[in-house]
Design brief:
Length: about 375
């Protein structure tokens, strides 16, 4: 059941590492505002993930945190990682904490909308006419493929030398369930899906294409479907991104293509994401919301981070987990107004605009929200 507006919404907050804690702080101020002004109650529990969890517990995600995530109505995550933990073995790395959450919560559908705000058209490295009005949605499969396939590891070869192995695997069911999410979402947008793989060189890629085609023919004939090789998609995103509406792709290609799409919006600091599981018999769906950007160790702790991607991720949480579309519109609208007023963090700074800190960006957003109250 989607939590009703009056019920307490259980939110697990995992700020993580680096700028994760800074951008999360601004988001929590907005959650507070919602509680005061919109009569919604969040039951917020805060915990550690990534390097911060490793420093305290010797693991990037403690079991009790995993349990809390399974019980929460939604998880908000900042960012994980940093040079301090680079030397750790793979099972201890901060990124493992995030990957464990995705895997054990079975968050197979990762929604990464790349929307270019008018105020930021000139902040992109691409020509304005290429990206003005851009609004695409990348649906990245998040629990299979290269990130999780077995076998994996590095082995010593008998004659000396080493072999590194990672495996790309998908079952037909894994392909179909993420493709279904893409088709459903396309129906609420411009009704076009482009499915992306490497069917020309990978058997698993060809199977991906076949499964998407079959599902389309069986259930989604009304939606426009095209297929594209991943290398071509990377090129087309730069050449003419507006040809796309919804892109559905595997875990690794989705990781790469979504960074590319993010940069069109002017900065990685602008792109939110939602990671969703399947609905269970009681209509409950596990979900995690996080910005696409990382922990940005180079600017961490200096108040320079752009909190917008985290705030927009919170807006996605309101929309997808709490059925609070009006409140999500308020947050998105406030972010747009703040940008229209010329306020910029360093990542999107341009001549003639006002350079502000993470907190000042949060202040301005709250002031815009307050005008709507
Ligand atoms: C992302 C990130 C993660 C990924 C890292 C932090 C493990 O790059 O969410 O895109 O590779 O999935
Ligand atoms: Mg990535």
């Amino acid at each position: 059941m989607t939590a009703s507006k009056t019920a307490n919404k259980k939110l697990l907050v995992l700020p993580g590492d680096g700028i994760g804690t800074e951008v999360m702080a601004e988001t929590l101020r907005v959650a507070d505002w919602m509680a005061k002004r919109r009569a919604v109650r969040f039951d917020i529990q805060e915990d550690l993930v990534g390097g911060a969890a490793y420093d305290k517990h010797g693991t990037p995600l403690a079991d009790k945190t995993m349990d809390a995530a399974m019980k929460a109505d939604a998880v908000l995550l900042g960012a994980v990682g940093g040079p301090k933990w680079d030397g750790l073995s793979f099972d201890k790395k901060p990124e493992r904490g995030l990957l464990r959450l995705r895997k054990e919560m079975d968050l197979f559908a990762n929604l990464r909308p790349a929307v270019v705000f008018d105020a930021l058209v000139d902040a992109s490295t691409l020509k304005p006419e290429i990206i003005k009005g851009l609004d695409i949605l990348i649906v990245r499969e998040l629990t299979a493929g290269m990130y999780f396939g077995q076998p994996r590891g590095v082995e010593n070869l008998p004659g000396g030398g080493r072999k590194g192995v990672n495996t790309h695997t998908y079952t037909d069911a894994e392909v179909r369930r993420v493709a279904a999410v893409a088709f459903e979402l396309a129906r609420k947008r411009s009704n076009k899906v482009c499915s992306v793989e490497k069917a020309n060189v990978m058997e698993a890629g060809l199977m991906w294409r076949e499964e998407v085609t079959k599902l389309h023919a069986a259930e989604y004939k009304d939606v426009g479907l095209s297929h594209m090789y991943a290398d071509n998609c990377a090129m087309q995103l730069i050449r003419n991104p507006k040809q796309f509406d919804v892109i559905v792709t595997d875990n690794l290609f989705g990781d790469i293509l979504s960074d590319e799409a993010a940069m069109m919006t002017g900065s990685l600091g602008m792109l939110p994401s939602a990671s969703l599981g399947a609905r269970d018999a009681a209509d409950r769906r596990l979900a995690l919301y996080e910005p696409v950007h990382g922990s940005a160790p180079d600017i961490a702790g200096q108040g320079k981070a752009n909190p917008v991607a985290m705030l927009l991720s919170f807006a996605m949480c309101l929309r997808y987990s709490f059925d609070m579309g009006d409140e999500a519109d308020l947050v998105e609208g406030a972010a747009k107004k703040v940008l229209d007023r010329g306020l910029r963090t360093g990542d999107i700074m341009q001549p003639g605009k006002t350079l502000v800190s993470t907190k000042a960006m949060g202040d301005a957003l709250l002031a815009e929200l307050e005008k709507t109250a």
